[in-house]
Write a sequence for this structure.
């Protein structure tokens, strides 16, 4: 592949048309191919698997996707938002299941009723690939596993996993969209001074399924993310277009390994998820639970994301995260938006584009990785606490009173385009304000009680309240 250059004007800058090799034909890779292809670049998309449009869906490894504002924007930029929203199922909030089978609805946004959308991974990938295939300058290459790359020279070596036939390619720019175990990132890691961390959590996941009713309808109210929070573990269910539910059980591996037979499984579900037994079906529950081993969950942080102006990693290759905030896909899609914006701003200065992308994006990537880990604790435990529910109500009230000033954390993550790092800073500011208000209210109340004791109480009562007040303000 030889370099071809064309000159066009982009915001006053001369933008050269690149030969781009996108490694990874999953969700982020296929969307990036569309973003780059729309700008006129020649794009070669390489995927080590077979074409997902003709492959069987692998059960047990998908984890349903929750499409929110950041992902929607990236899809809108290539004209696919409406098509995906028509396919997706809106979820207005969390439906919590207690041990007795009672359900409690907690909305995502009680003020403006914004929602997230449950979308099928396979369908979304198919839509993206179909759209990419319509561009004459986007070329799809399947069964191409990257085995070696010289990022400085832009050369890539592939092998066909089926035939073991090897092939080579060259590109002006290599972009790794090849997931948490990225082959492109492995080449970058070899460079000195590269920051990289990989963390496996002690919890795994296993997928189950709730079938439709005999009448072919949803077995539960379908415009919700259903959650069974159980402290140290949880189960969730997302609706599918065929009226089934993708059910995912998250819990420590030691809990999974303690269940060795049908009887132990049924005892476990009767104790923690009794209402789910009839929804899933006893025989199906046993079959699906023991069909596949629980899968691992990994968080990856690294920086920088680029090698000069020759190579870049985005999506899970740059910031794999646990799935508990529903932002893995959305963050990867937002990478495409950010990268496109930088190309629009700097035109053909590819080195500046990649450097600024890396410098501006790594902090946000690390932030959403941390938030995703925190949200697991919230979903499996905190959502049942009164303190959490009171805080959520207070956030909703303040958001209603000051929609441009007080944006709750979940809203800023899922329903805005605020930088992830800014979302965290905003939450810390809110916590500080509420702490000060509570502190001031407590001091004022204590002072009022002291005045009352001074006027109407005994000396001993006054001394007791004064001591309490001094302790409260850290003076004694």
């Amino acid at each position: 592949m030889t370099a071809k250059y064309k000159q066009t004007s982009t915001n006053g800058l001369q933008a050269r048309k690149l030969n781009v090799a996108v490694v990874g034909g999953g969700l982020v890779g296929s969307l990036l191919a569309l973003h780059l292809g729309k700008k006129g670049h020649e794009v070669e998309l390489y995927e080590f698997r077979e074409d997902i449009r003709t492959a069987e869906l692998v059960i047990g490894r998908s984890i349903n996707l929750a499409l929110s504002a950041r992902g929607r924007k990236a899809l809108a930029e290539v004209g696919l938002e409406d098509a995906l929203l028509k396919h997706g199922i809106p979820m207005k909030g969390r439906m919590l299941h207690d041990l007795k089978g009672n359900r409690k609805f907690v909305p995502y946004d009680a003020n403006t009723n914004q929602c997230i959308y449950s979308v099928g991974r396979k369908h979304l990938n198919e839509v993206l690939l179909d759209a990419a295939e319509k561009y004459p300058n986007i070329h799809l290459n399947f069964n191409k596993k990257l085995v070696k790359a010289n990022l400085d020279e832009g050369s890539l070596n592939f092998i066909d996993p089926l035939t073991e036939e090897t092939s080579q390619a060259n590109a002006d720019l290599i972009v790794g969209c090849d997931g948490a175990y990225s082959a492109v990132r492995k080449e970058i890691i070899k460079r000195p001074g590269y920051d990289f961390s990989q963390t496996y959590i002690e919890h795994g996941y296993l997928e189950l399924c709730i079938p439709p009713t005999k009448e072919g309808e949803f077995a539960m109210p379908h415009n919700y993310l259903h959650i069974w929070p159980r402290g140290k573990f949880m189960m969730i269910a997302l609706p599918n277009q065929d009226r089934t539910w993708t059910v995912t059980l998250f819990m420590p591996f030691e809990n999974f390994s303690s269940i060795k037979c049908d009887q132990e499984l049924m005892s476990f579900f009767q104790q923690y998820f009794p209402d789910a037994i009839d929804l899933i079906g006893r025989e199906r529950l046993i079959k699906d639970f023991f069909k596949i081993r629980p899968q691992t969950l990994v968080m990856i942080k690294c920086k920088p994301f680029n090698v000069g102006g020759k190579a870049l990693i985005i999506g899970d290759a740059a910031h794999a995260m646990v799935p508990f905030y529903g932002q893995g896909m959305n963050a990867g899609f937002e990478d495409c938006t950010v990268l496109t914006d930088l190309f629009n701003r700097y035109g053909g200065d590819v080195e500046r584009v990649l450097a600024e992308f890396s410098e501006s994006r790594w902090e946000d990537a690390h932030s959403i990785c941390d938030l995703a880990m925190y949200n697991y604790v919230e979903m499996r435990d905190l959502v049942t606490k009164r303190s959490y529910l009171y805080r959520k109500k207070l956030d909703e009230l303040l958001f209603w009173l000051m929609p441009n000033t007080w944006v709750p954390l979940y809203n800023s993550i899922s329903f805005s385009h605020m930088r992830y790092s800014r979302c965290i800073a905003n939450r810390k500011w809110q916590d500080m304000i509420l702490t000060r208000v509570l502190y001031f209210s407590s001091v004022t109340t204590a002072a009022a009680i002291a005045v009352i004791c001074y006027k109407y109480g005994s000396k001993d009562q006054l001394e007791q309240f004064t001591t309490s007040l001094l302790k409260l303000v850290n003076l004694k």
